[in-house]
Amino acid sequence: MQATKTASALIVLFIITAKLAASDYAVNANAREASMLCTLVSWAGQRSKWNPDSEQETDDVDDILNLNMSLADDEWRKLFITDDTEPQPVKYNTNKHKQITDSADTWAEWARQATETGTPKKQDEIKKKLKLEHITNEQLQVAKNEIIRLAAELQVIKDSTKGGTSTSETVDETKVQKEINSVVYGEEKEPEDTALRTTNFGTAKSTRDAMCDGSSSDPKVKTVLGILACICLADNTNNGQKQGKVCAGNTGITDQTWNPTNTQTPPQGALAALLKICPRQGEQKLTADKLPTAVDAISSLLTYDNAAGYIGIHQGAGCTAAQNAGMCVKYTDLANAQKDPKEAIGWLKKPSTLATNMAAAEAAAVRKSEATRQLNIKAKMLHSLVNSATVGQQPGVSGAAQTQTEQAEKAAKKQKECTAHKDNKKACTEAKCSWKGGESEKGECKVGESKVKEEVKIENSDKEGASNTTGSNSFVINKVPLLLAFLILE
């Protein structure tokens, strides 16, 4: 009989204990939600680093465009600059200049080039920057057509990177940081831990359940930090069922100072304690694809019934954090999952929009990076083009001086041949030398200066015919594709 009473008592005790245990919130019940929301917190402040630009344009590109302008006729360059001692760019005037170009941007670029090459000193500086100071102006004129062609290609590629930039492509790292801060804190700059309270909730209400309502018609909780408060913080009334442990394990968040009835929003100390569960140290490398991943993960954690959609544990009796109720945020306009939360929830929509803009900017950066790579490759061709076009000239020697040198070398060589025919009129004349002995068989055999000049002229003409068939050096025309292929492979 006694044994039966003891067994009955144990059964009753077990049932009571089970009921008490069932009334507690499970440790880490909202840990997944908190973890995903903390991902956004970790990106806030100035921790997010996002810079899609990679390839940088070499200075040689603008220098080559300037070099090309320096080789133009003075009359052309003077259209774009003033007559001052230090020339200034002439501003575009449609009435005066539309016959030259109908593009103010093109005019501005030409004016820049003309200004930066407006004096002989500036032109010499351009040559020095391009490591062409050993090339004479005469040699550059020989290579002028090749430089014009290269500059034209560079300008076309450069122009392709301008224009067509939508607003979505103008986002930068600072704008990204501001947008994320507005999602997390409701303001563009991450506040100090001593100033967290003001922007996370809307119109004050006297109950926790009312404050943790994010419905789009009149959202009371508007930020990630506000959501975290609703799903993670115990309050001064509801704290006996492990409410402080639903996000942070057995250690939990011990702060219980939130009094929804009196202060409505969580106090400063409670929010500061809450943020300690989120990593906020170190830089975070951000890309456009990371934001949709986070948004999708958060959206997937919502639950629904015929009254609302919920973030956080919901046990059927509102988001009061009371026993057997819920630690959550409710969205009445998401009842029965009738809307896409990524569109209906304001703070969740912002990262999606930001991701779209970032993706557009990243795509634009890829296009610009590839164009810049082409610019830099082509810029490397300058020296090969100049050297190839001037291959027939000695460095530092003009065409006339080079011809005189060739004539002198030819005459010296011919004189040796003619001297061997001294006292032999027949041999001398057959060798096309000049006989200095009259009708006598005794005399001097000399070089004929006019004949040497004619031979040099004929030889130079033959060289030009073999190497210059279209007004441009055929070596350049034939070798440029191979050179470009080599540079690309390099």
List the helices and strands and how they pair.
Elements: H1 2-23, H2 31-43, E1 48-49, H3 60-70, H4 74-77, H5 94-97, H6 104-116, H7 120-129, H8 137-142, H9 144-160, H10 173-185, H11 208-211, H12 224-232, H13 268-275, E2 284-285, H14 290-300, E3 303-304, E4 309-314, E5 326-331, H15 341-344, H16 346-379, H17 382-389, H18 399-419, H19 425-430, E6 434-436, E7 444-446, H20 449-467, H21 474-489
Parallel strand pairs: 1-2
Antiparallel strand pairs: 3-4, 4-5, 6-7
Helix pairs in contact: 2-12, 3-6, 3-7, 3-9, 9-16, 9-17, 10-16, 12-13, 14-16, 18-20
Percent strand: under 5%
Major β-sheet, in short? 3 strands, antiparallel
Number of strands: 7
Mean pLDDT: 80
**How much helix is in the residues?**
40-55%
Order of the strands making up the biggest sheet: 3-4-5
Give the N-to-C terminal Cα separation. Answer: 96 Å
Please identify the structural class as seen in this structure: mainly alpha
Kindly summarize this structure in a few lines.
The protein is mainly α and 490 residues long. Helices cover 52% and strands 5% of the residues.
Keywords:
3 domains; disordered C terminus; 52% helix; mainly alpha; three-stranded antiparallel sheet; two-stranded parallel ribbon; rod-shaped; 490 residues
Structure description:
By secondary structure, this protein is mainly α. It folds into 3 domains: 214 residues, no CATH class; 120 residues, no CATH class; 72 residues, no CATH class. Helix content is 52%, strand content 5%. It has 21 helices and 7 strands. A 3-stranded antiparallel β-sheet has the order 3-4-5, with helices on one face. Helix 3 packs antiparallel against helix 7 and helix 14 packs antiparallel against helix 16. The longest helix is centred in the C-terminal third of the chain and has 34 residues. The C terminus is likely disordered. Its main location: membrane. It holds the Pfam family VSG_B. It is found in: Cell membrane. This is Variant surface glycoprotein 1125.4235.
